[in-house]
């Protein structure tokens, strides 16, 4: 697996499974909790993720306090409106504040289902690539397996049924390998 060019890749469950299959994971080593501490998708720190977007002919810098803020904000933007996305981005409760009206949800659920894994991967990739301390913590896990023990994330999650615990742990191990290769 070469360094990932996330601008040219669209991440799906199939692509994650392919990239995960290329990893050298020491299955005999003790596992690492993927949903605790700095590895948790909701782990917060001020301005953890920064993006630059074009609005008309001007650039706008957006900051997010967690990968969850980024994910929920993108979901709100795609399914509802930019105003809701901005509210979610600044929210203390991005999951709750990111709920969209049923009629908007029904109109856009298929589009969201198609891209939500891509958004989640890029949110986590930005989190670890823009924060050296978080990247360092992830790299310290070596090639140990990462497990995700959180029953809340199982089952149906805004659309088709997908296993977020499985996806999250694979994303973290793929990002860890990408960080390792970029550092070499």
UniProtKB/TrEMBL annotation:
<protein>
    <recommendedName>
        <fullName>NADAR domain-containing protein</fullName>
    </recommendedName>
</protein>
<feature type="domain" description="NADAR">
    <location>
        <begin position="41"/>
        <end position="150"/>
    </location>
</feature>
<dbReference type="InterPro" id="IPR012816">
    <property type="entry name" value="NADAR"/>
</dbReference>
<dbReference type="Pfam" id="PF08719">
    <property type="entry name" value="NADAR"/>
</dbReference>
<dbReference type="InterPro" id="IPR037238">
    <property type="entry name" value="YbiA-like_sf"/>
</dbReference>
